[in-house]
Sequence to fold (368 residues):
Amino acid sequence: MNLRTTLHLLLGLAIVLCFQACSDTPIKTEYTHAIPANAEEVAVVHLKTLVEKAGLADDSHRQEKQKLLALLSNGGNADFVQQMESLINNPDETGIDWDMPVYYFNAPTLRTPAFVAKVNDLPKLRNLFKALAEENICTDISEGDGYGTVEIKESGLLLAFNDGTLLTVCTDSPAQVRKLHPAIKNLMQQGADQCIRNHPHYDAMMQQNGDIRLLATPDVIPFNLRGVLNWPQGTPILGYLLFENGRIYASVQRADFSGETGESAQPFHPQNSKELQQAMRRMMNGHSFNIELTTEELLTLTNLRVIMEFTPDEPEVNAMYLLVQKIETLNARGDNNRTRFTVILHEKNANSLKQLMEFAKQFAGFQL
Fold:
């Protein structure tokens, strides 16, 4: 995903977590029916698991929760502040089923990021939206055609919903939102025979062991890696990202590949840029590979050690240097059918996502 899409993803997840929607419509739907079978990108995000692995549910993050509460309730009355505090401390009170994954997708009819979450308590959602509307955060609920909609004011975010599905559409402006109403109507009303569950690779995506699972095309892969894998445009691909104690696992592969890759069991450690470029060329020519870099090799090949000598006080350089020092080894192995990535951190007893979150807060200026 590009930077703009990533920012939309983060913003949309925050909105889904903090501001969700409701309606009085009697229709009960399976929430994945709102994702079309021809969606170009689908990511299954186990948000509750990620929050737990990041340590955000711990009491140690009370300060961050208070900052979020202050942001959400700025200028609100006492009842609204109390309601927001209750939701932050107990997200299930939003009416969203956080035990079910949130889906990110991009559909040809939308051409903009969207999210789908499962609604399991419509009255709670209605109470939340009434409170948000009273504080002028969102519009009043507009209902028709079997579902309702609200807009988060001045954000370009539209939420469409019935009592089983919450669809959040992220756009650049309220004007763009209005243009997408026909497409949103089709998504909210489409049946099981038109949804993502009928995609030939949906089951394979869901069987992957990841906190985030992906079904997409090579266009979502960073350009440099896309060139190395040399996959034709439109090739269906699967991928996942998994955070464990002291380790991060990731994989990307052709969706129709089910065999084994033939890389050597002994990893190759390039000692300079020339050796790394030679290994990359072999990858582009279809050869299997097993490339591994230690902390020292990463510092050398990225020139971070040299850069630090000249600009030790540069915040971005210092942060990158410290981040690399957290890595024990970075390994990439496979062939042009499947590539697996493993990052092993020096700290083995804490979840890798929690370590990254703590690092971001401490060194990269990340604040809620």
